[in-house]
């Protein structure tokens, strides 16, 4: 079974020599043969298709070592020597390629803003909501209680035009569009 090492930039782009650097790491440190390289997003993400067992991939020869090999490789990968990008080692199978659902915390992840704070500003209770949020972040109250209190402050606001006004202010986080493209491939 083939595997893949996926490289994702932690910064705005991968360094210009990153393909050579990563190829050397895969060859010398992981002792793996690269079959092919696929650019997933220019200067942001790359897949290195790996042959885990060399050209002779017979089940008899490698079945007893496959799990140990993967554990060893994962340990090396955790000690990622690169500051500018993350490395992910995984089987190159249908489960990796055919994901059906991705779940994200939208606020401050895929969009720059916190929507509840935007609604609070619209309802003129932004300071009160911010205090509750700070209390939750400091561990003084739990998330469920903080959400209940914040939503309680928003009760009764006119929502007819709320979305039309808020959507004009929402900014997509840098990289979110590229992430969407990668997930759809």
Automatic annotation (TrEMBL):
Class of the enzyme per the UniProt entry, highest EC level: hydrolase
Gene Ontology CC, one term: cytoplasm
Pathway recorded for this protein: Amino-acid biosynthesis; L-serine biosynthesis; L-serine from 3-phospho-D-glycerate: step 3/3
Enzyme Commission number, as recorded: 3.1.3.3
Tree of life domain: Eukaryota
InterPro entries linked to this entry: HAD-like_SerB, HAD-like_sf, HAD_sf
Name this polypeptide is given: phosphoserine phosphatase
Origin organism lineage: Eukaryota, Fungi, Dikarya, Ascomycota, Saccharomycotina
């Amino acid at each position: 079974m083939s595997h893949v090492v996926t490289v994702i930039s932690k910064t705005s782009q991968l360094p210009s020599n990153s393909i050579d650097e990563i190829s050397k790491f895969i060859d010398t440190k992981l002792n793996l043969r690269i079959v092919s390289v696929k650019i997933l997003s220019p200067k942001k993400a790359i897949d290195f298709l790996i042959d885990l067992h060399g050209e002779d991939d017979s089940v008899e020869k490698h079945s007893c070592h496959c799990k140990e090999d993967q554990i060893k490789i994962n340990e090396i990968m955790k000690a990622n020597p690169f500051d500018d990008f993350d490395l992910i080692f995984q089987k190159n199978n249908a489960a990796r390629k055919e994901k059906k659902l991705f779940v994200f915390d939208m606020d401050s992840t895929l969009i720059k803003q916190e929507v509840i704070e935007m609604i609070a500003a619209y309802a003129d209770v932004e300071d009160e909501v911010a205090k509750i949020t700070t209390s939750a972040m400091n561990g003084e109250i739990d998330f469920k209680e903080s959400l209940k209190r914040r939503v309680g402050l928003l009760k009764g606001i006119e929502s007819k035009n709320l979305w039309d006004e808020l959507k004009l202010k929402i900014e997509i986080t840098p990289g979110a569009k590229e992430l969407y493209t990668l997930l759809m491939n």
